[in-house]
Design brief:
mainly alpha, 6 helices, 2 strands, two-stranded antiparallel ribbon
């Protein structure tokens, strides 16, 4: 009997394999390629961006690295990538509802949409020099935290495991 339970468990794990995440990963890689192709002189701009980092003392005894000048080509490419990938996640969410995917996967996709659009927003603010480098990093950390909270909160609110009968 234990062998048949293992077989069933293995089949269940195989059914839970997430093909939409594979589509998302493939689109991620393709989008990186497209952004690199459509961004003029991206390689040189990216090298200049990395070489521009210096150690900055942000508070007594606290140092971080930051670019010393603005790099609009890099920031624009990052913002475009984030916003395009966020739009893909909306399509993925629609497919998750269409295929009646699990609440956990839907919640994860909703949280992912929030993260990518948030990252695109703060990247745009960095591009327009509305915020500085450290505010940008703080914004990214905020959206990572929001991603975690939203994903887990949605699962708690909408996922009700079956109750055991006494």
């Amino acid at each position: 009997m234990a062998g048949s339970e293992k077989g069933t468990e293995k089949e269940k794990r195989h059914e839970e394999w997430d093909r939409l995440s594979l589509v998302s990963a493939g689109f991620f890689l393709a989008l990186v390629g497209v952004i690199l192709m459509i961004t003029p002189n991206y390689y040189d701009e990216a090298v200049a961006f990395v070489k521009d980092f210096k150690i900055v003392e942000v508070s007594p005894n606290i140092t971080l690295v930051a670019p010393m000048s603005n790099h609009p080509v890099v920031y624009r490419a990052v913002a475009q990538f984030c916003l395009a990938f966020g739009m893909l996640q909306i399509a993925i969410l629609g497919l998750r509802f269409l295929f009646k995917d699990s609440v956990k996967r839907k919640a994860g996709t909703i949280a992912t949409i929030i993260f990518w659009f948030g990252a695109g927003y703060v990247s745009t603010l960095l591009l327009t020099q509305t915020i500085g480098w450290f505010a940008y990093l703080s914004g990214l950390l905020f959206f990572i935290g929001l991603w975690l909270v939203v994903r887990n909160l949605l699962v708690l609110v909408f996922f009700k495991p079956p109750r055991e009968r006494v």
